[in-house]
Amino acid sequence: MTEILLVRHGETEWNRESRFQGHADPPLNELGREQAAELAAALAGEELAAVYSSPLKRALETAHTVAKPHGLSAIPVEALREVDVGSWQALTRGEVERRFPEQFSRWLGYERGWDDGETYEAMGERALAALEKLAARHEGERIVAVTHGGPIRAALARAEGISHSEARRRGPVLGNCFVARFAVRDGDFRRLD
After folding, report:
1. In terms of pTM, does the model score above 0.85?
2. Is 9 annotated as catalytic?
3. Separation of alpha carbons 179 and 41, rounded Å
4. Considering 82, 132, 138, 164, which one is annotated as catalytic?
5. 49 by DSSP, 3-state: which?
6. Given pLDDT bands bounded at 50, 70 and 90, which one contains residue 111?
7. Closest to 5 (Cα-Cα) out of 133, 124, 141
8. Is the dihedral of CA 155, 102, 17, 24 positive or negative?
9. Is residue 112 scored above 90 in pLDDT?
10. Largest pairwise CA distance in the chain
11. What pLDDT is stored for residue 32 in this prediction?
12. Which of 36, 37, 123, 184 meets the CB 3.0–4.6 Å disulfide criterion with 135?
């Protein structure tokens, strides 16, 4: 079994403004850097074999901060990117609601709202496949993977045997620098906390 700590990146200005980020690449803001430093301090006493990350700046900067006290480098993994929100990228919730009212209503109903981009299911398949490979590479070890809300929800859904939409409905709220611990073996995800 491999223990994977799935971490959501620190805050960006787009988080603060409630903008859909998707594959966009805004950096951490000052609060996000503070959150990453607090997380690094909280994890400093844990034995970590490796730190992986989405290649997007907000995740990679968080990962570098977490990796540094362990003498590790953050390793980017393309498949750990957030879901591609298509034409919603960079828009606030209010802007999406005005421009795409039917799609927004669908999204509020815990389904995918955007008509372009990527489905939650496709994002989940790519992210979970990457995490399974990392788990196999680090059998018996503990690793960190800094990613986004979408991939973390996919892991929560797999662990509970439910759909991504049901995982969104049930929660928990995934704040910036949220951490979820999983035991992973042969594609099986079990939540540890």
Report:
1. yes
2. yes
3. 14
4. 82
5. coil
6. confident
7. 141
8. positive
9. no
10. 50
11. 98
12. 184
Burial letters 132-156, b for 16+ CB under 10 A, else e? bebbeebeeebbbbbbbbbbbbbbb
Residue spans per domain, the chain: 2-84+119-191
What are the DSSP calls for 131-153, one per residue?
HHHHHHHTTT-EEEEEE-HHHHH
Which residues, including other chains, have CB under 8 Å from residue 20's CB and lie 6 or more apart? 85, 88, 89, 90, 91, 92, 93, 96
Annotated catalytic residue, options 3, 9, 118, 138: 9
- In this prediction, residue 17 carries a pLDDT of 96
Q: What percentage of the chain exceeds 90 in pLDDT?
A: 95
pLDDT of residue 187: 87
Q: Which two tokens stand for residue 88?
A: 């919603």
% residues pLDDT > 70 (the chain) = 100
Q: If we measure between CA atoms, which residue out of 6, 25, 1, 2 comes closest to residue 14?
A: 25
Neighbours of 6 (CB within 10 A): 28
The two three-digit tokens of residue 137, written as one number? 């590479």
CATH topology of domain 2-84+119-191: Rossmann fold (3.40.50)
Q: From the CB of residue 166, how many other CB atoms can be counted at a distance below 10 Å?
A: 14
